[in-house]
Amino acid sequence: MYDLIVIGAGPGGYVCAIRAAQLGLKTAVVEGRDTLGGTCLNVGCIPSKALLHASHMLHETHENFEKMGLMGAAPTVDWGKMLAYKADTVGTNTKGIEFLFKKNKIDWIKGWGSIEAPGKVKVGDTVHETKNIVIATGSAPASLPGVTVDNDAGVIVDSTGALTLPKTPKSMIVIGAGVIGLELGSVYARLGAEVTVIEYLDAITPGMDGEVQKQFQKILTKQGLKFILGAAVKGAEVKDGAATITYASKNGGEDQTLQADVVLVATGRRPYIEGLGLDTAGVSLTDRGFVAVNDHWATNVPGIYAIGDAVPGPMLAHKAEDEGMAVAETIAGKHGHVNYDVIPGVIYTTPEVANVGLTEEAAKATGRKIKVGKFPFLGNARAKAMFQGEGFVKMIVDAETDRILGCHIIGPNAGEMIHEICVAMEFGAAAQDVALTCHAHPTTSEAVREAALACGDGAIHV
Ligand code: NAI
Asked: Ligand 1: which of 39, 269, 311 to mutate, judged by most atoms within 8 Å of the beta carbon?
């Protein structure tokens, strides 16, 4: 009899299991993939970051090396070797989790699990008994009517297929200007493809601060990506190894077509709960098909919990990890907690885009008086030395208390720098607290301090 069986070994599930084992619970994880780590490690965050890194390096050699006096022929792409580097990166990390499981005496039950009844998880022909179950089964790409994904054929693909294309495409259509579309679209643009992004809304990256959206689109356009906004994709056909997309303005009008070697469907993800037996177990779902949970990640069935992409909230690995730790602590009789107001989001393009807390639009909508402090990377020596002076840091504070409500960064190292503000927000800091903190020179983090200074008496280097 286990104390806890976690279903799914993605960032939510494996982190939950490790914390549970550390707290003395006899723990097992059910995972049907050949390797641990879930979507994030196997076919998501990590392999895409390997390709982003490699393609960024290539882009640097083409765009900036000569400017720095680095002469000579720019490298060409050996796609097979690049995919092998990506696979190695994934492999070392998935093995790392196996090691952590052994170290923490967590059993890996190999296979796909389903919940027979509270306290009973069936894998293959065996039913495993447990006091508690955590559903951490993650999400899968959402389908788009009229567009059939076939990752093996490699013409119309989702985010998984886009990581193993047989060759680098000359042209690519990306459907959806969200995080996946822009990260993977950037990879193939840098590898030489002509990339066109078709987005239903009138702006890219839904939900992001409006000023960041505009600047981000401008920078990506300069990098060669084309955008068709306000357009709904209605269908796709494959002929002779290439695809034709049909789309129309979302306000109506004539159908238009566009052709490309590869089409990437990146129109969102849905919770992955098929075959889990939630019906039989009596677990309730939300009206949007997520597992319904309370503030302690408990479902309506005692002893069954759920976390990560399977429950409502941002579909982010780190949000799942936080919930994993917190639910393990709750099950162990402690007080697990996640601060949903301070969950950073990062897009790993060049420049990176990072945010935490409220956008200017959302802060205004709360009805409170706000102040906005902005600082451009053009005033930051370190960013300019890296040819990345195009972005900015934008801090949003409560005008009366100076408390930081949100921060948005588009620029070099944005994904690392945002954490200074996450910590500040966890401590309920005012912009003045950040402004009065000495920041090393020359660093890109100085731009964060300057934005904080701009919320008070003014930034220095503008
Ligand atoms: P998304 O929800 O971020 O973006 C999907 C986009 O597709 C939206 O802008 C939507 O308006 C558009 N769209 C939907 N139907 C369309 C249609 N018929 N025609 C044209 N456009 C259409 O979803 P995405 O990029 O697929 O990512 C899924 C999830 O994975 C997100 O929650 C994201 O946060 C997460 N993720 C996070 C990453 C990160 O943190 N760096 C990396 C990759 C994924």
From this structure: 269
pLDDT digits (tens, 9 = 90+) for 246-274: 999 999 899 999 999 999 999 999 999 99
Amino acid code (one letter) for 46: I
**Would you call 53 a catalytic residue per the annotation?**
no
Ligand 1 centroid–CA 420 distance in Å is 26
Nearest CA to ligand 1 atom 23: 268
Q: How many CB atoms lie within 10 A of CB 294?
A: 9
In this predicted structure, what is the pLDDT of residue 379? 98
Q: What is the pLDDT of residues 44-62, one digit of tens each?
A: 999 999 999 999 999 999 9
Atom 44 of ligand 1 has which residue's CA nearest to it? 180
Ligand 1 pocket by C-beta < 6 Å: which residues?
144, 175-181, 183, 198-201, 206, 232-233, 266-269, 315-316, 345-348
Distance between CA atoms of 363 and 419, rounded to whole angstroms?
A: 20
Which tokens go with 291?
């597992």
Mean pLDDT, all residues of the chain:
97
CB 434 within 8 A of CB 421: yes
Instruction: Please give the distance, rounded to the nearest whole angstrom, from the Cα atom of residue 45 to the centre of ligand 1.
Output: 14
Residue 382 near residue 439, CB atoms below 8 Å: no
> In angstroms, what is the C-alpha Rg of the chain?
23
- The DSSP secondary-structure symbol of 430 reads B
> Which one of 296, 337, 419, 441 is the catalytic residue?
441
- State the virtual CA torsion across 191, 196, 198, 204 in degrees, nearest 10: 60
Task: Copy the structure tokens of residue 366.
Answer: 């709360």
- Threshold 0.70, pTM exceeds: yes
Strand partners, 249: 231
CB atoms within 10 A of CB 414: 29
Going from the Cα of 305 to the center of ligand 1, the distance in angstroms, rounded, reads 26
Rounded to 10°, the helix 179-190/210-222 angle is 20
Q: From 216, 255, 267, 343, give the residue whose CB has the most ligand 1 atoms within 8 Å, as the site to mutate.
A: 267
| CB contact set of 402 (below 8 Å; sequence gap of 6+) | 371, 430, 431, 432, 455, 456
